[in-house]
Structure formats: C-alpha cells, structure tokens
Amino acid sequence: MAEKSKNGQSRILEAKGMTKRFEGLVAVDSLDFHIPEGAIASIIGPNGAGKTTFFNCITGFYEIDEGEILFNGSRLHGRSPDQIARAGISRTYQNIRLFSNMSAIENIMVGQEPHLKSTWIGAILGLPSTREEDEHTEDRARELLRFVGLEGKGDMLSKNLSYGDQRRLEIGRALASKPKLILLDEPTAGMNPRETIETTDFIRRLRDEIGITIVLIEHDMRVVMDISEHITVLDYGRKIAEGLPADIQTNSDVIEAYLGRGAAAATAAN
Amino acid sequence: MDLLRSQASRTVLALGLLSGAFILFTGAVGMIAAFHDREVVDRFISLGQLLLLMAPFVTSYYVAGRLDEHGGAPPRILAAGLVVGLLTALPSVVLLLFNSDEFRFLLFLVLRLAPFVAASAIAWQRHQAGAEIQAVLGIWLLVAVLVGIVTFSFALIFEIKGDLRSVLVNIDRDWVDVITFDNRKDLPLGIATFGLASIGAGFAGSVLYLMPAVPRRALIYGLGITTLVGAFGETARLILQENVDSDTLREIFRRDTLRQNAALALFIISTAAGFLWAMYGSKVRENIGNIDSSSRRRLNFIGLVIFVAFMLLLPWLIGRTLSDVAVTIGIFVLMGLGLNIAIGLAGLLDLGYLTNYAVGAYILAVLTSIGPLGLFKGTFTFWMVIPLALLAAMFAGFIFAVPVLRMRGDYLAIATLGFGEIIGKLAISDWLKPLIGGAQGVQAIPKPIFFGAELKNPEQLYYIVLVASLVCLFVSIRLNNSRTGRQWMAIREDEDVATAMGIDTARAKLLAFTLSAATGGVAGAIFAAKVGTVFPNSFTVFISINVLSLIIVGGIASNPGIVVGAIVLIGMPELLREFSEFRFLLYGALLILMMIKRPQGLIPSKIVTHEHQSGVKAKLAAE
Hints:
- Chain A is of the alpha/beta class.
- Chain A contains eleven helices and ten strands.
- Chain A is 41% helix and 23% strand.
- In chain A, strands 6-7-8-3-9-10 form a six-stranded mixed sheet, sandwiched between helices. In chain A, strands 2-1-4-5 form a four-stranded antiparallel sheet, with helices on one face.
- In chain A, helix 10 (252-259) crosses helix 11 (261-269).
- Chain A is globular, with a radius of gyration of 20 Å.
- The termini of chain A are far apart.
- Chain B is an all-alpha fold.
- Chain B folds into four domains: 1-99 and 169-210, no CATH class; 100-162, no CATH class; 217-279, no CATH class; 304-622, Orthogonal Bundle (ABC transporter involved in vitamin B12 uptake, BtuC), CATH 1.10.3470.
- Chain B has 26 helices and six strands.
- In chain B, the strands form three sheets. A two-stranded antiparallel ribbon of chain B has the order 1-2.
- In chain B, a hairpin with a 2-residue loop joins strand 3 (253-254) and strand 4.
- Chain B starts with a helix and ends with a helix.
C-alpha cells in the first residue's frame, strides 16, 4: 500500500530520482517529488526549467531514463499513456489541446473513455446495453458541462468557443475520467484578473467538493501563493527548493533563479 | 494609367484575360474541337460553342459580383461585362490571325523588340527611383537577357516550323471552324461573329447579375437544366426511351440531340418551375420548419419511402446502358463508404485502398471461376464466397495495418501507397502466375445466381451493389454515432491527447483499417462478378486515387457527399466517354477548383448534436 507521509496522509504520487535526458540535455535531473492525497501542489520555475517535461513523464508521453514514479504505491513508469489515464491521472495542456473539430460535449464524452465498456459490435447491432451506456455518457457529459459553466454551448465545435471557455472545457474533459489526480499546465495562462480569480476558486472547489488531488504548473505568483499548500521550484531540471508558500517567497535560491544573483543579494540585505 | 491602377479595373483585366487564356488553352489541347462534335441543341449550338460562350458569361457574372462588392455602379458593371467578353475573345483571335503573313511579321517584330523594350522600361523605372547608373545598366542587361531567351526561342521555333500547326497540333481546321462559327472562308466575318458572340455572352452575364433575385434565379435554373439535359442528350434519351413511346421520343430528340422546339419547351418549363421555386421556395421550407414533430416524422417517413422506391425502381427507369454505369458508380460508392471509415472517421490517410479491392476480386475469381484457374470449378457460388472475400480483405487490411500503426499523416500515406504498389506487382508476377494467371488474369467467373435465376444483367447486379452499400452505410452511421466513432474522431483530431484520454489508439486504428478493408473486399468481389474476368490492369493506383478524390470532392466524412462525389467523378466520365482523352484534364481542374473554392466538399458533413436532444436521439426514436 501507499507509504504514509509525516502527517499521516498517503502519498498519491511519488517520484524518486527521476531523470529525463534529451540527447545530452538533462531536462529533469534526479528529481524527488511527492504529494499527499487531497493536496494542491504547485510546480514553479523559470522557462525551460523542465516543468512540462515533468508532466509529460508522469503521463507517459516520455519514458524516463532513470528513477521511478509511483502512483498510489504502484509503478507508473513504463506504462503507456492510455494505461496511465485508466489508472486515474488526467491532465490539461499549456497550449490548449482540445479535439477542435468535435463539439464541446463530444470532447467530454471522449474524456469518459476509461469508464466505457461498449464495443463496436454492440454499436452496429444497437444492443440495449450499448444504448444505455451511450445515454448515460451523454447525461454525465451534460452534467459536467454544467459543472464547468458551459451549459448551452455543448453542441458548438470546441474551436469556436472563446478562450476562457476552451480552458474550462479542457478541465471538464480532464474531469470526465473521474481522475484521482489531475495535472493542470498553466490553467490561468492568458486570462484577465477576473477570470483568473474565477479559475482559482474553481480549482479549489475541485479539491474541496470532489476531493481530487491537484498538481499545477503556474506562472502567476498570486495564484500559486493563494491556493498551493506545497510548492516545488525547478531550475534547469533540478529541484532548488520546496515547502510552504511562505518559505518559498523568502528563499534566496528561488529569488536568484528568477531575478538573478544581484536581486537575491538585495532581497537578503533587506 | 489611373484606370489601370484601380483595384476594380485590375480585376476586370485579370479575370477577362484569364477567361481568354482558358479558351485558348482548351482550344490548344483540342477540347473545343472535340466538344463541337456533341450538339447541345440540334442545329443551334454545340458543346464546343457553349464552352466558348460559357467562359465570358460565367466570368463576367463573377466579375460583376466582385465589382458590386466594391460598390461598382450598374453602368460600370455592364461595361465590365463587355470588356470581359472582348478580352476572352482576344487571345484566340490573335492566334487565329497568326497564319496571315502581315500578322506574322508583326509578331516577329514584337518578339524581337520585346526584350529591349521591357529592359528599358524597367531600367528607366529604377533610374527614376534614384538607382545608381551601374545598377541601372546591370538591371537592363539582366532583363534583356532573361526576356530575350524566352522571346527569341519562341521566334526561332516559329521560324523553323513556319506553320503554327506543327507547334500546336490542335489549332487546326476544326478549331478554326468552331472559333469562327463556321466562317473559315471569310475570316473577318468569322472573327466579327466570334468577337460579338463573346462580347454578347459577357454582357449577358453582367445583365443576369443585375437582375432582381427572383427572375435571376429562375433563369439560372432554366439555363442550367436545359444545358445539362442538352449536354447529356444521350443519357437523357436513354432514360426517356424506357418510359416514352418512340414517336414522342423522335419529336424530342434527333438521334442523341435535343430538338430546338424541345429545348425551348424545356427551357420555358424549367424557368417557370425555377420562378415558382424562387418565389415560394423559402415559404415552403419555412412551413416545413414550422410543423410539429409528429407530422415531421410522418413527412420524413414518406420521404424515405419515396427514396427507397426510387432506388429500387432505378434500373427500370434508366435502362440497361445506364444501369451499367449505375453499377460502376455503386461499386465506387461502396469503396468510398469503406475508405471513409479510415480517412473520414479515423483520419488515417490510406492510399493503398486498392489492396483490399484486389484481394476481394482475386479471391472471388479464384474460388468461383469455371475456367482453368478456378480452384473449385463452380462448387463455390458467389454468395458463399462474398463472406470469404470480406474476411480475406479484412485479414489483408489487418496485416498491412500492423506495421504502419505507429505512422502518422504523410508517412502513413506513403507507406500505404507502397502496399498498393506491392499488390499490383504481386498480381502480375511470375511467382503467383500458376494461381492467378499473371497478366492474363483469371477468366470465366460466373455471374451470381439468385434462387435459380442468373443475375447477368447490370439491372440485376445493381441490387447487389445497392444492398452492400446500404449495409455499409448503416454500419458506418451506427459506428460514427458510437463510442468507437468518437474514439476515431479523437485520434483524427489529436492522437497524443486521445491516448492521454485512455484510448487504446493502436486497437482503434486497427479496427478502422480492418472494417475499411472489409468493404473494399466486397466491392472488389462484386466488380469481379460484374466484369467476369480479373486481371492486374484493373488494379492501378488510380483506383485508390479515384476513391480518395470522390470522398474529398463529396465532403470528407459525409455519406451523401460520397454518393454525389461518385456520381460526379465516376459517373460523368462514363457518360462522356467520347471525351475520354480530356477526362483527367477535367478531373484535375475540378479537383483544383474544389480545393480552392469549396475545401469542405460538395455536401459537408454535419455536426451531430448531443446536448440538445433534437439530433440523433430523435432519429433513433423514429426508427
């Protein structure tokens, strides 16, 4: 079973010495990372620090070169992306990647894939079980549309939705698989302050109401400091700091990574 | 100069000359002369002449639209029509005059002087713009040499050959006859007739554009229908022949051409019908939109019954010759529906579809043939082998799909293209000759027997294709609206994300390839039974290309689109057999035009609604 962390909660995701190289470039360098179930954790760092690579390794898009990734205590690395999705991890993307020529509701229906059982033969024959499942899928998709605030827009092609709606739909699609862990890659990128606050509240609701564990990559420090319970800072693929938001804010290594040595010295002097 | 610089004038000039170039080009490849042999209306106008007049007519209609967008007033639009007509005739008239000595002298002079004039003009412009003297001289030299190479080589060719006919073999007496409206002897009169006709057609185009909407639409219907019936006179006569007695037929047609009176009557009737539709059509549609759902269901049902009855009676309405065409179209519809599963639904660009078609055809040939290569000499019947052909093609599709599962987009296309070539080479190889007869192929394939009756005519084979197509249509509609269909769509849109959603993409792609292949196999088997012989020449890469094109022209992932695409791309060339040499030219032109003007296809696919219950569910409830 899952290892227990200090405060008694089980670790839902754990990476040990995880390393990913691209032809000599070390994108993620022997990273240790873990997150307790039901937490909201953030990964921050300058551009090119290896944050999205880290996500891609967890979801099986990349094979890691060294180390291991455990999900609820069982091995995740070496499994294919669809198996990982079925295990209960889903994600959104930095640059929105919806199925753009499918309608919004169809996107969510595809998101439910891990729980569907009907077969193509059932579809051709129009078996009652297949029809029932299809109807159930549609009903759930409608519910999720409502949950992410897209009621009435379900039959629009997703590429015709506004930017904010597309972000919301992507989260809705990620929720459709009833994940235990969701990875959000810059969920508030490109949003205005009001939308950012709405999204932040929405993310908190996901955890509080549904109980999903959330890891997010985010550049907006107000969002990060506001909702994270735990922050990991990456720079050049290495973990340079981790801890509570308050600790990170005053950490000189972090300030140096973001602003350079001089700024770090100045902050320390203050 | 100001006039030339304005956007509107440039549009008129460019499109007018384009239309002129079109006429010149179609003349130079011999299309106009060939089309002249088919009369559209008896002793009135031929298809070649119609082509000559359609170009300025359509162009000026289009130009009028462009000018109207930019706020051109009616007098300007009418003037533009005249100019377009003139410009359309111009290039052909120049070519027509070429055979006179004075003109040739003039042309040589132009060709010789052109490089110097062009170079001086450009150099002068650079000089005005303040370029240094060395740069100006350099540009002069460069332009003079470049243009000189082109014009001097033209002049040389003309001088050596002397006669233009040896350069452009199709600019012959026949061409002159069509262009001059049969005034070859009196060239000035001929040129005047052609010029005036072209200008008139251009003018008519802009007049048509300026008409109020209702008469304009009525006229477009009238002209369109009359032209279509006239151009496909042979087809129209074959259809009428089945339903009208021979005396009436003789009143309407002289051999395969529409008589003048009949054409006039047809024009009046179709214009009147068009008029009524333009007046009340929108109201009718509105009323249909307003009726409640139960009556609508009844209406849909009546529509379906009429459609089914029409499809069932079709062979008896159109006769044997056209039924044969219908069977060919049907085989391609079947293949189109099959390939659409891979391309349209799952986004797998498969250029080796011919593989499945060939496997189906050869399996049927070898298993049922009563000739020397038949393995069982008639023990196996058509009906027993169809499922085997289906399974064999599925198996072939599966085998070929496994190595390409990881490939995407263009790589997949090239790999599948390779498989198609392999099958073509295998069919003709010595290695398989003892089994499938090499270049001679397999002969003596018996026709299907249905409850003791041999289905030997195209009218009867038609039903086999119809049933097979309907089954395939049913399957692809059911799959498209299912979990499997949504998996395919997701893979088509973004394969990486589809995997991350938990879709086993390898499995879904294998299924798409295999089902697609099954349909191709059945189409191949029906083809083999229809023709009675199977040999490698029937299986060229053009089969794959044809099927792909009809899907794209009809509208990707659109089932009605596939039927329309097959009728346009397969049916039309069959009906215009006498122009077969221009088939691929028209084919190519149509594809280019479609991709520019209507990339979504003739009948684009519709979005299925899920959030609001009106869509699929309403239909399911009606079934």
